[in-house]
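Q: How would the structure tokens look for this protein?
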Amino acid sequence: MVSRPQQFDVMVLPNLYGNIVGNLAVGLVGGPGIVPGESYSNDIAVFESGARHAFATAAGRNIANPTAMILTSANLLKHLNLNLHAQRIENAVYKVIKSGKFNRFFNPEFTPFLIK
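A: Here is the predicted structure in token form.
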């Protein structure tokens, strides 16, 4: 997976292996603060960061990146068929990322820049 991630379109794994592979994949694309996640069953949908135990060492240091949770909220809105609102949030996040002004760590200017 690390050397050729493009070989996979979908992976279906039991919980433990799903967490391991999910955390590995998150590391490939920028870190735990970047990737949104969701889990579905027949009756329930859970929306959370794509990485488990995401960046616990950032607690209290004001450096955690909120992008994953912001994109997760957009996925929740899509799930609720509020697509226009989800698209507005996603477009704002992508605009901030494309600006190149912010790296994978949180910057106190991130949220005001996102709201613009």
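The chain has one domain: 15-99.

The radius of gyration is 15 Å.

Upvote if useful.
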